[in-house]
Specification:
Radius of gyration of chain B: 14 Å
Largest sheet of chain A: 5 strands, parallel
Distance between the termini of chain A: 47 Å
Oligomer: heterodimer
Strand order of the largest sheet of chain A: 2-1-3-6-7
Order of helices and strands of chain B: EHEHEHEHEH
Structural class of chain A: alpha/beta
Number of strands of chain B: 5
Strand content of chain A: 5-15%
Distance between the termini of chain B: 16 Å
Number of strands of chain A: 18
Shape of chain B: globular
Strand order of the largest sheet of chain B: 2-1-3-4-5
Shape of chain A: globular
Helix content of chain B: 25-40%
Structural class of chain B: alpha/beta
Number of helices of chain A: 20
Largest interface: A-B, 41 and 31 residues
Chain lengths: 480, 140
């Protein structure tokens, strides 16, 4: 007991808010927090709690889920968006793994279940306050070099925060995300903002290097080590000494080489092919992949112990369709940059073009967007304004088809069905099936219209975030 | 799809590498540049195609010339051929963030293997470009 109170006595006094409809919980938690030297306020309803959070700067908020005036998870994002952006620790009486998943995905620091013990409460409180203290001393984001990496959405802000942390340390970083999301840009930015920035940033393109070549390229070789080795070659691992080694598409690293590379990661010693002498290389490792490495481990195509080493710190980059609010900024930036690159006057763009760019789902992500803008500029030639017609045909076709499909679906709903006695359903079954289909269609349309933006979807549908997530999970093939 | 090949060497290593590239890509899709100005003018043209640049530096001066236009190369996949394996040359080479580094005294079979993989990889990506006019131009 004493250990936890000693641990709680922080050097900085924090402001803590407790939102729980159970007065006894509020009082007990308040006592624990006060004894640790922090200030505490409490609220018995979500409304009260939100008013408190908006009017006072809090560091940590304990938030109950089942409140008389709503679901705590629904106000979690609003609490996080207040000026002090407090860490939120969810408390709930009903243990629910889906709720836990939703809480963490919504930005909760932690998720704890009633009945609470002091230990259940104090450890997440101490850690969240420690995290906030350390965050204050970190390099501010505005001074980070992040050329070509843009975004004001909450997803990208999270990524920038992770970038700052990665740059501040020497820990191995794994950057994941779909193709074209900017994994190499983030890897470079991690290097450029680190203490190794004046040393080599060595790229190993694991997808481009043939299996027959990759070992000698990575480790180097002596003269005569194998047929064709007519001179000494210094490997990329040695070239990355005191710098950064970037393994692009690390999922393509041959299984046969993964064990040898793991040893290098563990010991930072290796032997070039044909050499009897071990060489030391102090490199910082950053890797990237668009593959699911956990699945590859299960399939026996990637070593679990190597993944464990690579995965010390993960930056997951979101697909562009999940932060469509950043498209406009990206378009403005890249049109200007491309026009400057080509030495031509800057081009404007029509509102319809921007609408089309925002509506498209960008399977190739930011790289596809930039390539598309390049092609549009090339197509426009000397025209000062980019219009919808300058977009590549396949994008215009896809958007047009999506619009037509929506209209056809709307028309189908109003058509009658031909009936027969054979297979005529029971009324109860018919109702359930029809309702489920209509609900599923509604959700699909909602996601298409809002481009997967949950905040907008909640506003448009009048459904709470938690309920919307439940429904999406229910109909597994809803495309976000 | 375009391969930009920069070399100031008319014979020797320049010719050797050119043969390797022509074995992989049809001539219509290769641009050969013998001066840095010519290369930089080409890089400043709006492109409808994906581009790979193979940059050969026979001497340190060639490497410095390539570095002087590194801003024009930042969105392009590059293969760089260095004049030697000195630390300074390697350091300058990595400044270009190449997909692959080779050396002037190589037989370039390594460059051919890497370039072939890169071309195939570009074709298999799920991005915009319609490559139907290019698939028959990749020679195995």
């Amino acid at each position: 007991m004493t250990y936890f109170f000693q641990d709680l006595r922080a050097s900085v006094v924090a402001n803590i808010l407790i939102i729980d409809d159970d007065k006894m919980i509020c009082d007990s938690l308040s006592k624990v927090v006060k004894r640790s030297g922090h200030n505490v306020s409490s609220a018995l309803t979500l409304n009260e709690g939100l008013k408190e959070a908006l009017s006072t700067s809090f560091d940590v908020v304990f938030l109950d889920v089942n409140m008389p005036d709503g679901n705590g998870l629904d106000v979690l994002p609003r609490i996080r968006e207040t000026s002090s952006s407090p860490e939120v620790i969810i408390i709930t009486g009903s243990g629910d793994p889906n709720g836990a998943e939703l809480a963490i995905k919504s930005g909760a620091w932690d998720y704890i279940e009633k009945p609470l013990s002091i230990k259940d409460v104090t450890l997440p409180l101490v850690r969240s306050l420690q995290y906030r203290e350390e965050k204050k001393t970190r390099k501010p984001l505005v001074s980070l070099k992040k050329e070509g990496i843009l975004g004001n959405s909450s997803q990208m802000k999270t990524c920038f925060d992770l970038l700052a942390k990665a740059a501040d340390s020497d820990v191995n970083v794994l950057v994941t995300g779909e193709t074209g999301t900017g994994k190499e840009l983030f890897a470079r930015a991690s290097h450029q903002n680190s203490s190794r920035s004046n040393k080599n940033f060595v790229v190993v393109d694991c997808a481009a290097l043939p299996d027959t070549l990759i070992e000698s390229v990575l480790f180097g070789h002596t003269k005569g080590a194998f047929t064709g080795a007519d001179r000494v070659q210094i490997g990329l691992i040695e070239q990355a000494d005191r710098g950064t080694l970037f393994l692009d598409e690390v999922g393509e690293l041959p299984l046969s080489l993964q064990k040898a590379f793991l040893r290098v990661l563990q010991e930072h010693h290796f032997r070039p092919i044909g050499s009897e002498r071990e060489i030391k290389s102090d490199f910082r490792l950053i890797s990237s992949t668009n593959r699911n490495l956990d699945e590859m481990v299960q399939g026996g195509r990637f070593r679990k112990d190597l993944l464990f080493r690579l995965h010390s710190f993960n930056i997951e980059l979101p697909p562009l369709r999940e932060h469509a609010e950043d498209i406009k900024e990206l378009v403005i930036y890249y049109i200007a940059k491309l026009c400057e690159h080509y030495g031509i006057g800057t081009k404007g763009f029509s509102p319809e073009l921007m609408d089309a760019l925002v509506a498209y789902d960008w399977p190739g992500n930011v790289r596809e967007l930039v390539n598309t803008l390049e092609r549009a500029i090339a197509t426009a030639r000397n025209e000062p304004t980019l219009f919808h017609k300058h977009l590549p045909i396949h994008i215009r076709v896809k958007l047009a088809r999506a619009m037509v499909s929506k209209e056809v679906r709307n028309n189908d709903r109003s058509k009658g069905n031909t009936i027969s006695a054979e297979g005529f359903p029971k009324l109860k079954d018919f109702r359930e099936t029809t309702f489920a289909k209509a609900e599923q269609q509604y959700l699909q349309d909602l996601m298409w219209l809002t481009k997967g933006n949950m905040k907008e979807a909640c506003q448009l549908s009048g459904v709470s975030r938690s309920r919307l997530y439940e429904l999406i999970k229910k109909y597994k093939n809803i495309q976000l | 799809m375009k391969v930009l090949f920069y070399t100031k060497m008319k014979e020797g290593a320049g010719k050797r590498l050119q043969r390797v590239i022509k074995g992989l890509v049809s001539e219509d899709n290769i641009e050969i540049h013998k001066s840095i100005i010519s290369l930089s003018l080409s890089l400043r043209q709006p492109k409808n195609d994906k581009t790979i640049a193979v940059l050969m530096a026979a001497r340190n001066k060639d490497l410095m010339d390539i570095l002087s236009i590194s801003d024009l190369l930042h969105d392009i996949s590059t293969i760089v051929i260095l004049p030697d394996s000195e630390d300074d040359s390697i350091r300058k080479g990595h400044h270009l963030r190449p997909r692959y580094l080779s050396y002037i005294d190589s037989d370039f079979s390594d460059v051919g293997a890497v370039l072939g993989n890169m071309l195939r990889s570009f074709l298999s990506r799920t991005e915009t470009a319609d490559y139907s006019d290019f698939t028959d131009q990749i020679r195995s």
